Amino acid sequence: MTEPLKIVALTGGVGFPSTTRTLTDDLLSAVAESATAAGVEVSLRTVEAREHAADVANATVLGLASPALDEALHVVEGADLLIAASPVFRGSYAGIFKAFMDLVDPVAMRGKTVLLGATGGSSRHQLAIDQAMRPLFAYFGALVAPTAVYASADDFGVAGRATPVLAERIARAGDEALRLAVATARAHAGA
């Protein structure tokens, strides 16, 4: 690989501060740490869906994306590895997360490595990753990393830091996603 691997995190958190953003940042850091250990050069970006909420609504209704939304969509579509994280509301991803994804070019997502993350108030919502998020990215034809990370409020300990159990899951997921993205990039380069 001659160019850095483009790692993009899309966070669908709606609060401020956002535990979803915290999880997203932790997943991004885990991927970066795995890349450093593997000697893989990466570039890192984060896209906050909530920052584009009004533009997403306008683009959905009017069919015209603002320059800022257009750039955010291109960043997501151009990722080699997409970290996609959303809070869980009523058993599924956040509406702004889904509305943003509705504007993403499905062809650009085909074969893209995706690492899934979600947050919720309790562990009762952890199936949202498998019941809602995996099918969404299967529709796109994305390559979803085997380990996804769900974090409830109890998984964030002192000062909003990941507990050791959560930190271990994040590290494992980040490493798996990086290895999958590198293998995919090498396969595309050799094709």
From TrEMBL:
Database matches in Pfam families:
FMN_red
Asked whether the UniProt record includes Cell inner membrane among its keywords, one would answer no
Tell me which residues make up the NADPH-dependent FMN reductase-like domain. Answer: 6-152
Question: Which controlled-vocabulary keywords does the entry list?
Answer: Flavoprotein, FMN, Oxidoreductase
Which Enzyme Commission number(s) are listed?
A: 1.5.1.45
Q: Which GO terms describe its molecular function?
A: oxidoreductase activity
User: Mind telling me which InterPro entries this protein's record contains?
Assistant: CE1759_FMN_reduct (IPR023932), Flavoprotein-like_sf (IPR029039), FMN_Rdtase-like_dom (IPR005025), NAD(P)H-dep_FMN_reductase (IPR051814)
Q: Does the keyword Flavoprotein apply?
A: yes
Protein name, per record? NAD(P)H-dependent FAD/FMN reductase
